[in-house]
Prior knowledge:
A: 327 residues, alpha+beta, 2 domains, three-stranded antiparallel beta sheet, 9 helices
Amino acid sequence: MPEAVTPSPSTTKPLxxxxxxxxxxxxxxxxxxxxxxSPSTFEAAVQFRKTGNAEHVPAVVIGIIERFxxxxxxxxxxDADDDLRLIEDLGIDSLTMMEIVILVEDVLQMSINNDxxxxxxxxxxxxxxxxxxxxxxxxxxxxxxxxxxxxGAVMPVQPPFLFLNEASVSSTAANGKYKITGQEFFLxxxxxxxxxxxxxxxxxxxxxxxxxxxxxxxxxxxGKAVSSQMIFFTGCEGVRxxxxxxxxxxxxxxxxxxxxxMPLATFxxxxxxxxxxxxxxxxITLTYGFVEAANxxxxxxxxxxxxxxxxxxxxxxxxxxxxxxxA
Amino acid sequence: xxxxxxTGLGFITSIGNxxxxxxxxxxxxxxxxxxxxxxxxxxxxxxxxxxxxxxxxESADPEDWTFPSRYxxxxxxxxxxxxxxxxxxxxxxxxxxxxxxxESDISNPDxxxxxxxxxxxxxxxFHHERLQKVGVMRCSPLGIVASIVGTLNxxxxxxxxxQGASCGFSSACASSAxxxxxxxxxxKLGRQKRMFIVGAEDGNVDAILPFAGMRTLSLQTDPSLASxxxxxxxxxxxxxxxxxxxxxxxxAEVARRGVQPYAEFLGWGQASDGxxxxxxxxxxxxxxxxxxxxxxxxxxxxxxxxxxxxxxxSTLIGDVSExxxxxxxxxxxxxxxxxxxTKALTGHGLSLxxxxxxxxxxxxxxxxxxxxNAHLTKVDPECEGLNIPRTxxxxxxxxxxxxxxxxGGANVxxxxxxx
Lengths: 327, 419
């Protein structure tokens, strides 16, 4: 399992506790650099440069991203959640990402290494990344995309009771998809001549995604790993089903950890079909336990060597930054 | 082999930013020269430039540029352009509209694009200076594609989703004439069905001033006296920028789409001086050979040529060299073809010149006129024996020959026929 990416000393320099004096010419240069950004972006940048207070960073970063997004897509950023995707939702290509980085570096007076950018896929990823850089914290684990073979290899649950076709896991969330095929054995009786996905099974699917998060994404203690044999359901609250789901529907599942304290992990979860809400769970709680981490697989060049079946599973997805250059 | 026709034109030039304005200025011999503000310094000896109007590309940041509102260009496209890319992009949009091309006519494996510009010395300078000052990792990731020779084809191929042949031509002031010639060959050989030929230049300080170092620029301060091809008092060329796009199509495509072409492109020839890196052959050897080859390959006898749009840039050596080449080629009929250089009106567009002036020939053939040789008072005795009209002649012509020459003694001659 990939460890948290510890930045090399040369690329992360926590800001000095007393920021450099911010002179009038610095302000003029900053104003020029941010001349196509909103006034609030400039103000946040000034505040950051004067005080070194990292609270101003998200406003600067979002303001800079906004400046590079085509005007008709900018509305998306206004009420964006952190899951807004840079490429798919905002049309930011790898060259634009570089332009953003160069301006962020210039404005926040920091250096960003290309390799560090490879896994930034969402607005939230960018905010977390910059925040970690500013505070000199280790960078979070990148979002991992987990294909079905790998899901089957690591999960304690197996077909015909596995309800995930694909998943992505980061340190802060997990997302997955499941297509109701109509071949599920329980649909023969649920209901007579009217196959409907049981709500209890949809809850099970969210629980399975949470298990995958614990195994692949959750922070652990040094030398420990979450044991797939020790995860069990404890309880859930605030479950509401909003939509009947039938064969052919593709369930989009997502969970986010709310609290984690050994031996309990509590998540919020939701299932959508397209844009329609299907199930909401306010809290779903699992119990888990650690074992000694034995020979955990090491990521090599973006390839994840699967310890169970010996196959190589690509966990790195096409990077937004690499390969765009066709020189 | 299929016949080849000119079906669309687009212009951003010192004498107009659309075909109608260009035609009027060619007919009325109105030049596009201005006293160029950035040249008004004591250490800059030349003062006049053929300026592109209604565009401001002074900034190295394309988002600062201003241009006519009829052109809407996304930041995503603009960010990798040099000024010459902007001019060409706008001319391209005109040419598409003029030729009535659909998206699928433009973007398919049988439609290609050949381009010519000298790159952007202006942006090369800017980005290298920035590299020295702030370090390479703070430089624009698009600095290279905006600056180097080839910037035109990179940008246009991507912007217009060209899928056929594409490349750039680099034979200095013969570049876009070469592009036309090779595009013609591709159409003749059945490799492509439609070709876009693009020439463009920044036409700013960095693009033009270095020629003052060669002592080839006119030092005249009066815009109406600076460019005087074939005149005894000429003292060098006047630089200009802008962009021109020409659409060439096979006869099958012309018939399929039911469009009325400007003219037929009959063929071309090229030859080199093998003489000097920058000085024209004194007898016009390469230029004469290029014209002879163009005539031979098209089977058009010299006496059938009605008009020659000369390369003549208003330099001392170049104009004489071309005059001698013309006399050599049109021996018995040297008085017959009308000869004029429209650089008297536009200035010298360098890589842009060949396609821009070929497009002028297309307008002249379709509209039935021959632009006069403006600003000619007394013909240089060395250039005598040619039929150089001082005013525009309003009569239809059948056959037009276009000359282009570039550094290294590269010479191209193209022949067009009324459609």
